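As the next step, I selected for study a record pairing a protein sequence with its backbone structure tokens, which the following lines show:
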Amino acid sequence: MTSAHPSSPSTERSEPVSRRRRTARLPTFTTFSSLSPLLRLLVLTQLAFNIGFFAVLPFLSEHLGQSVGMAGWLVGFVLGLRTFSQQGLFVVGGALADRYGIRPVVLAGCVLRIAGFAWLGFAERTWAVVGAVLLIGFAAALFSPAVESEVARQAVVWEEAGGGDRTRVLALFTVAGQAGAFVGPLLGALLLAVDFRTACLAGAGVFVLVLAGHARLLPQRIPGRVQVRVKGGARLVLRNRRFLALCCAYGAYLLAYNQLYLALPAEVERAAGSQAPLAWLFALSSLLVVTAQLSVTRWAGERLAPRRSMVAGLVLIAVGFAVVGLARPAGWTGTGGLMPAAGFVVLLTLGQMLVAPVARAWVPDLAEEGRLGLYTGALSSVSGIVVLAGSSATGLLLDAGLPAAVPWLVLAAVPLVAVGVLPRGSRPVPPDSSTPTAPSPPVPPSSSSSS
């Protein structure tokens, strides 16, 4: 397989350990300022995206049920449509970014998101709500894989130019997204004091600012990026067993992470008699990522190769499920009964810090030259299918009337199985005939200037 950069023949990235340790010891607060202008723009983009998104979407279900008057099943159906139109179509957005470049795809996605939020603010009938939600989801399917793939590509350039391990860039990207996910609901809650329409229009306003900033600052052409035809991309992904193995392992992690919204609420309800403590547990998870992600990435970069980092993260997640499973037979309630749930959240979040940046940083090693957008989108789409199937099975498991510990111990086995699925060493294969046989030379960070 043709690597996205010729100097990384192995997914374990065989640069000397001394070099990796030396770069990992750079102070974390200098990471952002040391990035190229393009990378700084893309990291801030992720922050703005999530502020605008989470100012609206956490409050959508209540709005649909109470203000619009939808039945519960219809609310769930609409939310499912949004997820499908977003995650399921990431692969489309990634392929379009490979074909046309990230600028037109990102700008088009911002325009659709603005229109979707504005429409949602005024939608009062079911068909209008469905249309607005589909537009909101498809907008993300355009701009998110475009931005994420370019961040991964620029992280490789940054690494090859001696800036440090690429996972530090992906970790910073994760922190920016989590910070947006933390600030967005706070902004939305303040705006809901007026009404839901105001929150929607404010969310649209955030994307108006993003659109204006990117129209001015995002380069027309990014040096070193090649454009390839869309045709044949799906065949390449389906033949790439190592990449599909990574998708399955990443899907198992996402399935575990989604238990914050499925298994954890039921456990909190049992222990506390209400779901009020959930907000504190979610805040705990967000604050851990914002405050500790860069330090955890630096620590892992000094000691662990990428595959071992993912293994460690998956094992921590499994232990988190086991903590609740082993405590469940005791039937503890009150503050003491919430301690296993809090331990689960902490371990799950620590596992996330080890798994998520490394998985994204691994994709360039598995993608053919010029296809990074497709592969970045496919990582979300394929793992999303895993989560969809796994969530249905988890729901059945939780409702099956089994002994209290069994569902949690079964869920603990999922990340352990994913450890066995993770790909190992790589070997090159002939490049696709539709892509260049020799990759373009790396672009120094200083040359990726914004225009």
About this structure: Confidence is low (pLDDT under 50) at residues 1-30, 426-451. The two ends are 34 Å apart (CA to CA).
